[in-house]
Amino acid sequence: MSDKNSMNTKDFLIGSLIGGIVGASTALFLAPKSGKELRSDLNEQAQLARDKTTQFTTTAYDKGNEWATYAKEKSSNIAKVVSDQSAQVVGKVKEATANLKSEAEDAANSASDIVEDLAGDVKDSGEEIAETVEKEVSDIQAKISEETTTK
């Protein structure tokens, strides 16, 4: 909406300037004056037109510089915000990665401990089974020996 207002203001100023020049020129040509007076009036009006044009040019240049400075400040602020937020995201990703790595190491250590415990349990169970089997075999041999000696 402000762009439309800016265009309307600009068009109005240009129209006013052109209308003023045309009106002044028409008044000069229609007024009953001598050639010398007419030339003098034309020179005055031309000088006024140059002065106003210079004034408008200076104003436009100043406003353009002001808007350029404003745009630079805003874009600098936006770049800073984006940079800060990017740094925060990178930090959070690094932190999450470190946490995942730590959790993975903890899980690996836990798995290793569980395997060692199971290996120890299997070894103990294996020894118990071997002792039980040895005892049973000894009992069977003893029975066989007893039966063969009693016969």
Automatic annotation (TrEMBL):
Keyword annotations: Membrane, Transmembrane, Transmembrane helix
Pfam annotation, one family: YtxH
Spans through the membrane: 12-31
InterPro entries: Desiccation-related_membrane, YtxH
Disordered: annotated span: 132-151
Protein name as it appears in the record: General stress protein
